[in-house]
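Lab manual, section 2.4: Encoding a predicted structure.

Procedure: take the sequence of the chain (559 residues), apply the prediction step described in section 2.3, and record the output as structure tokens. A sample record is shown.
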Amino acid sequence: MIRINQIKIIHDENKSYDYDTINDVLKAKVAKILRVSVDDMESFEIIRHSIDARKKPEIYHIYIVDVSLKNNSEKDVVKKCRNKDVSIIEPVRYAFPYEYQHGKEEDLRPVIIGAGPAGLFCGYVLAKHGFKPLILERGSDVDKRTEIVEHFWKSGELDETTNVQFGEGGAGTFSDGKLNTMVKDKDGRGRAALKIFVENGAPIDILYDAKPHIGTDILRDVVKNMRNNIIKWGGEVRFESKVDEIEVSKDSEIKALKVGDECIPCSEAVLAIGHSARDTFYMLKDKNVEMNPKPFAVGFRVEHPQALINYSQYKIADPKALEPAPYKLTTTTDSGRGVYSFCMCPGGFVVNASSEKGRLAVNGMSYSKRDSKNANSAIIITVDPKDFGDDDVLSGVEFQRGLEEKAFKAGNGKIPVEYYGKFKEAVSGEPDSTNEDDTLVQTQKDFKLIENTPSMKGDYVFANVHDILPDDLNNAFVQGMEKFGRMIKGYNSEYALVSGVESRTSSPVRIVRGDNGESVNVKGLFPCGEGAGYAGGIMSAAMDGMKIAEYVAGRICKK
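Recorded output:
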């Protein structure tokens, strides 16, 4: 296989960059680079597409492609090219290592607790290879769930079983649907996961975009299609089936799961709970399943006009042939805390993502077109067990709950919002200095920051957001915002919108597992995904689900 890196195409706002068009353009370019004809190509695959805007307003599309040739010696072709961006590679192809063919009728099927990305992908690959898993999900199927969530956003009436956190597809279903991850893909699980998404209805460009996303509207259909395939291959998916208890034998081995009045025997159970399954964490603590508290991050959602972000990144306020611009910001405060952007949603909405009555949490969400007038991102500050005020393994859960109770009270059940200028003045005691910066004042006028209003799902109210976090975290937030204002002009505008609280960034615990994927003290129990502390987003959770499926299949096949 030949890989060609750094294929540059200058951006033209009047041209299309959809898959079919760019595929033909790239084939012609590659044929010229390799000095072969397009007909000589046996296979052609776009591996990666990114945007280079370092010399804006001159913008380039950068592509990496893989090509195999029919009749030519690929090594000879590469040698004759004399091009450092052309090389021979051995692509990584993911292969599930087991097929279940020797089972007996009385064998217990593997059970997966949770139908978020980790649970769905674990169930998907197990079902595809004959293992017929049972998936138990506490919330509703995605269609019913969508109705319940929309009702909550309109009425404020929260369903604690089915909401933005719980239900088919997990928390990722009501998010931006971002599929980028920092996890290395040395085993090919990441690319295989992307192909599974595409096979189930996601757009093909997620296979190569450097920052792929699906959007919550398309993701709902993808999740449903995955479920239907699991069922077609012999698996079963039960909704509104919360696991209340695990039963463990005297030999410290999983033997059953209790769902209401039903007891489901099992010898392999995948614990693919989300990071908001707090009642399950307490049940596991009571069962002495080994867990450790872990660091995470908390903060606020910050909104700006998308045009401001586009102009900062592209020098084009309203691009026609480019995606709404994302950004990534990170810094360290004087006290050593990390402050960074998280789950940035171009053209998105801030959503009420609460799952417990009397507590309020927010998240970011985008539809596939990303056509909201605002960009939003969480700006979060790192916290660790010493911040939680207790040595208990679940002290992080109670720390989150305390912040969410303050957020709920601040907005009287609605999302509390505050202008950054007012927030900063309350925290630092100093009036905002925006009026002294003529350039910033002009930026605010040009991009209508002064007139900007929240783009939100769920009722909101202007309130004292600065009362939610402890003082040291508020100070860290302000320090971060001021530094980010030097990176993106207007970011620290007094009219930037701050809402909260962003408390569900990752799991507050890690459920300890060994090299075989099992809990270190309960055999047959496989902690998995984000809630177990082994992932941070849709893709890493999906990849971890596939990894745990391999361990589960191996354990079954060795019996």
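Check your result against the sample. The longest helix spans residues 538-557.
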